């Protein structure tokens, strides 16, 4: 199927145990919301959080943004109930934490199939452990198979730092090689990939810098911990007016009758190929989706 790129520039974590945050989430301009049943919810609050999430989705059966539910690991004491609750809410995707092996996705996809879940219900995977990074390519290859439901990688930088001891300061210079490894694996599997959170939401300048860094590294967007970060992320991961104008010019160049069938053309002092045409068309499709967010799209 043809998949029109869905913008995932700003993806905000919202604790399912926080009633005020749940209610506010329906009004935010984030491209996507991750309703969290895992790290943000204390063990004794897991049951209540599930019920609150069910109630929220009943109250808001449709939403302007993409909605994802992060569950606890299926092997944990909360995993099965989380999966049942998430499936009942009928979100756009379910986010699996600490994915380390392809079987983690295969088992989750199998559980959804057995429950006759909608084919459009996707799976997202957190890459946040040393083993997860090392196996990212194996996991990402599932993105090439519709039956696996895999659509997106989400990087858990805090967990990576905790488990490896790497320092996140200094423009994440010690983390960058691993981040690029995850981006590369995601692209090989045809997946979107989201950068990790920036912990100091009061540091707007530092957050903006890290967003621009993530965009330059090839991430599709950034996961967020506070609504104040949404606007900055949306700007950083959007094409500029100049980039949009150039993309339009490249498309128009290849569409001219005299250029039909040509593979390489001169453009503003350089040569552009049909791969540049494909890149330009994708950029324009994404820009159009951002400009018209209520437009129907076809996704995994």
Percent range for helical residues?
Answer: 40-55%
Mean pLDDT: 94
Number of strands: 10
Estimated structural class: alpha/beta
Give the spatial strand order of the biggest sheet.
1-2-3-4-5-6-7-8
**Helical region count?**
12
Radius of gyration (Å): 20 Å
What percent strand? Answer: 15-25%
Distance between the termini: 9 Å
In CATH, the homologous superfamily of the largest domain goes by the name Phosphoenolpyruvate-binding domains
Q: Identify the overall geometry.
A: globular
Per CATH, what is the topology of the largest domain? TIM Barrel
Please write the string of helix (H) and strand (E) elements: EHEHEHEHEHHEHHEHEHHEEH
Which architecture of the largest domain would the CATH scheme give at its second level? Alpha-Beta Barrel
Unreliable spans: 296-300
Number of domains: 2
Q: Let me know the largest β-sheet.
A: 8 strands, parallel, barrel
The CATH class of the largest domain is identified as Alpha Beta
What does this entry show, briefly?
The protein is of the alpha/beta class and 300 residues long. The chain has helices at residues 19-25, 46-59, 79-89, 102-114, 130-134, 136-140, 157-164, 176-188, 204-217, 230-236, 241-255, 274-291, and strands at 10-15, 32-36, 66-70, 93-96, 122-127, 150-155, 192-195, 221-224, 264-267, 270-273. The chain folds into two domains: 10-236, Phosphoenolpyruvate-binding domains (TIM Barrel, Alpha-Beta Barrel); 241-291, no CATH class.
